[in-house]
Amino acid sequence: MRTVPPLVRMVTILLLLSLAGCVSARLAQFSGFSQAGVAYVKASGTFIDEAGSAAIRSDSAVLLQARPNLSKEQRSDQLDKHNARLKDRLLILRKIKRHGKLLQDYFEVLGSMADSKAPESLGAAAQGVYDSIAKLTPTLKNATIGSSPVSAVIPSAVPIVVASLKAKTLEKELRDRGPLIERELALQEALFTVLAQEIKTDLSIELNRREAEEVINPFISGSEVPNGWATTREDVLNTTVASESAEAAAQAANELRLSFQKLAANQFDNNALSSLIADINSILDLTEKIKGPPPGE
Questions:
Q1: What is the pTM of this model?
Q2: Average pLDDT score, the chain
């Protein structure tokens, strides 16, 4: 049986303790949000990896199904075309993951600013990270994944109102770049919204093949049902149901974006943090459930 990695569940405890133990509850909120943002990026990164693997498995299933009816030349031509499309998809996924990693760097800088004695030099560090993020933004915003343009599903901007803070470096950062970071979080949400639809399609192709070849055909044939048939059937059915929750990463990105808005306005609390962490956990839950079978199965 698969187990969910303990990373985010451990972070949940650490974050709630950090909020309870810090002297300044307001600054502790930023520290907690920063750590939650880092956990989100790590969890969404595992989802991106699985989206790439699912795309490859799905495409391979399509090629293998078509192969018997193709000539040698047609097989070569189809393989080249499919490989080119997959390389484009995997390159976009790598850029999405890079975008997330840079947001993680920004969250870490933001967390360092949650100190009334934070140096002004951290503002330059935040500016540098944002500049790197902004270089990726046009490519991702104008990308089409499958048949879905990312730009069509980017959510409308939410206002970033900054409540007064004792940490002036942090307050200045929020006023300078808060609205810009909100747009990058909106882009993350749009990217994962599109990816959710693609991974559903990819998984349906793969699962239909597995169900036919590994569940239905062995059961209705005259031969003995192979060892592990019941486990395979359970895995296929559970993965089929889990794939319907592929929007988990987009939901977590939405929660992170709205939490950022609340944080700046001094409306973020333990309940909001717990809700955010629950959404981050759901990404890991989903990723574990939709993983392909181990090598050799």
A1: 0.84
A2: 87
